[in-house]
Write a structure and sequence with these properties.
- The protein is 49% helix and 15% strand.
- With 382 residues, the protein is α+β, with helices and mostly antiparallel strands.
- The protein has three domains: 110 residues, Butyryl-Coa Dehydrogenase, subunit A, domain 1, CATH 1.10.540.10; 110 residues, Butyryl-CoA Dehydrogenase, subunit A, domain 2; 144 residues, Butyryl-CoA Dehydrogenase, subunit A, domain 3 (Up-down Bundle), CATH 1.20.140.10.
- The strands form three sheets. It has a four-stranded antiparallel sheet with strand order 2-3-7-6, with no helix packed on it.
- Strand 2 and strand 3 form a beta hairpin.
- The chain is globular.
Length: 382
């Protein structure tokens, strides 16, 4: 069984092909998934395969290794979510870091970094969060001071997606510790062979068990000043405010794919599983619960389709993106919780995909800015 949705105008036949091709690749990773979860990360070769197939930086211009736009990125995100391959950090790499570089870097920087990201030679991470700061980006303690033609960087970061694999890191730090938000800059760090850079432990998480999420430390790390993102220092906070709406929409889009998979898995289960001599599907409560889940999915999907149009027209606002991220991730957790309930005891067993979807969903309300912060941001514009 598979639920249907109203096909948005942006999902052209060409993008359906992108979606189906990506779905085939992600489903092809299923035999490796159990080992990846035990390892706490996917293999480096999976990144290279994604690059070879054109699924890294797909929304970048062709001259930088891409050739599509944001809607192609969405098709890949849906394919990944519907395959339950939450360990692949391509959303951070392609959907977050690459646009920062495209929108704010010099032409020389774009030509240097984006093609390597598109091929998988570089795996990217964005390092904002620090121990003790969470969503308060103005309170960053990691700092960079000038020495000759370089920056000397000291500090630490926590909860960094792709932290073990990443060899290109977009670092948020203070270049002026006296100026608060106006002293924040973004610096791109190429880590291969970099003295003073260290990866901490690969963090043991409730969900996303095949995704490497790490602590990073910088001890007198020397980086060329030309790696500053943008023409002048102190633009980091503005750059983040401009790019964060996209990040929050990406989180919501992941929730759409996860809801679809959860509902389809549950439909299959309740139509086969029998209780009291008949399929669980025959009970009215089951039908009502599944209908409610489907309605929440349709509403969330429609909301995100409008946001996709808005981002293509460069009019997705901070409050709208914040509320979409908040509402969709809340519904994602509600829907998957209902699905687990319908699975009964089996829904709590990690060998069942629904249990993994349940564990993976919880962090959606935390990263990218907690849902409490999302409501606070939206309220400021009311």
């Amino acid at each position: 069984m598979s639920i249907e949705t109203l096909a948005p105008n942006w999902m052209t036949e060409e993008r359906k092909m992108v979606y189906e091709s990506a779905l085939k690749m992600f489903k092809g990773w299923e035999p490796k998934d159990e080992q990846w979860r035990k390892n706490g990360m996917i293999d480096r070769e999976a990144w290279e395969e994604a690059g070879e197939n054109g699924f890294l930086c797909a929304s970048m211009p062709e001259e930088y290794g891409g050739g599509g736009d944001f809607r192609d990125e969405v098709a890949i995100i849906y394919a990944q979510a519907e395959s339950n391959q939450s360990g692949f950090g391509g959303i951070v790499h392609s959907g977050i870091v690459a646009p920062y570089i495209l929108n704010h870097a010099t032409e020389e920087q774009k030509k240097e970094w984006l093609p390597k990201m598109a091929s998988g030679e570089y795996i990217a991470a964005i390092a904002m969060t620090e121990p003790g700061t969470g969503s308060d980006l103005q309170a960053l303690k990691t700092y960079a001071v000038k020495e000759g033609d370089d920056y000397i960087i000291n500090g630490s970061k926590a909860f960094i997606t792709n932290g073990q694999h990443a060899n290109l890191i977009l670092l948020a730090c203070k270049t002026d510790r006296e100026k608060g938000a106006q002293g924040v800059s973004l610096i791109v760090i190429e880590t291969d062979g970099l003295e003073g850079f260290a990866r901490g432990r690969n963090l043991d998480k409730v969900g996303l068990t095949s995704q490497d999420t790490s602590e990073l430390s910088f001890s007198n790390v020397r980086v060329p000043q030309k790696n500053l993102l943008g023409p002048i220092e102190g633009m980091g906070f503005i750059q983040m405010m401009q790019e964060l709406p996209r990040e929050r929409l990406l989180i919501a889009l992941t929730g759409i794919g996860a809801m679809k998979l959860a509902i389809n898995l549950t439909l299959d289960y309740v139509k086969q599983r029998e209780a009291f001599g008949k399929p669980v599907w025959k009970f009215q409560n089951t039908k009502f619960k599944m209908a409610e889940c489907y309605a929440n999915y349709l509403a969330a999907h429609s909301m995100c389709d409008l946001a996709i149009d808005a981002i293509m027209e460069k009019r997705l606002s901070i409050p709208h993106a914040s509320l979409i991220k908040y509402w969709v991730t809340e519904k994602q957790c509600e829907v998957i919780d209902e699905c687990v309930q319908l699975f009964g005891g089996y829904g709590y067993m990690n060998e069942y995909p629904i249990a993994r979807l349940y564990a993976d969903a919880r962090v959606q309300k935390i990263y990218g800015g907690t849902n409490e912060i999302m409501k606070e941001l939206a309220a400021r514009f009311m």
